[in-house]
Predict the 3D structure of the following.
Amino acid sequence: MTSSIGTGRDAAPASPASRGPAAAATGAAAIEIGELRFAYPDGTEALRGLGLRIEPGEKVALLGPNGAGKSTLMLHLVGILRGRGDIRVLGLPLTDSTVKAVRAQVGLLFSNPDDQLFSPTVLEDVAYGPLYMGLPPDEVLARARRALADVGMEAYEARAPHHLSLGQKRRVAIATVLSMGAPILALDEPSASLDPAARRELIQLLARLDRTMLISTHDLALARDLLPRTVIMDEGRVVADGPSATLLEDGPLLARHGLEALEPRSPQARASH
Ligand SMILES: Nc1ncnc2c1ncn2[C@@H]1O[C@H](COP(=O)(O)OP(=O)(O)OP(=O)(O)O)[C@@H](O)[C@H]1O
Ligand SMILES: [Mg+2]
């Protein structure tokens, strides 16, 4: 197990009581970030004064070119990386003393599934979160199997995660996040390396889930079809934020940030959507 995984998967809450302070902060944003700055030890400034507010229930696309800082931001949401600036999750300021409670609220999908999977079998990996939350064994198993079924990997529960294909690993990693049941999902490139059918099923699954979502992706069609709001990052800052329907059609804006507008949908495709 790598250290980042250790911290990431500690995410599981100690007890339902740990949800108390956050849940009590009614009217709070799901995620609120102010002037966040972070440099890696080699001096690379990955976040340069980033601000972002996401309301409970919002589904938000996080777009931007390679190196924009998307994954760095995601790792800050659960305190794996700690920069300067303010991060609040459901009203709870992220500090050393609240990091566990915050991790109970945010299910993070790492961009690399190898960072998420470390158990001898797929089922153990997906059961890890609910087990750590102290749920009864029946509930742990039910949650793990349901999450595996949600990503179409129920036939693989006894397999070793490190022997799966990349797309299969991604699906299992998504299941490890789903099984936790956190109200906020921070998913770093969830559709990368999925085959078209698995990608479509993932979009349908995420569309059904009533949770707050921040999804980093290069899949602009996923953003258009699933996520009403788009945030574009570049060079460690938010450079655009608005309705996906508007931003994803703004060719010049997208081109300035290494992105390409989608082809307009055919009338038939629009009708069947
Ligand atoms: N461990 C690291 N050490 C030093 N610099 C890093 C490290 N990880 C990322 N960076 C740098 O930080 C910046 C932001 O990287 P990050 O991975 O957050 O980008 P990203 O938007 O997720 O890109 P991508 O679309 O390729 O996933 C880049 O300049 C990158 O080279
Ligand atoms: Mg990334």
In short: The longest helix spans residues 137-150. Residues 99 and 253 are 36 Å apart (CA to CA).
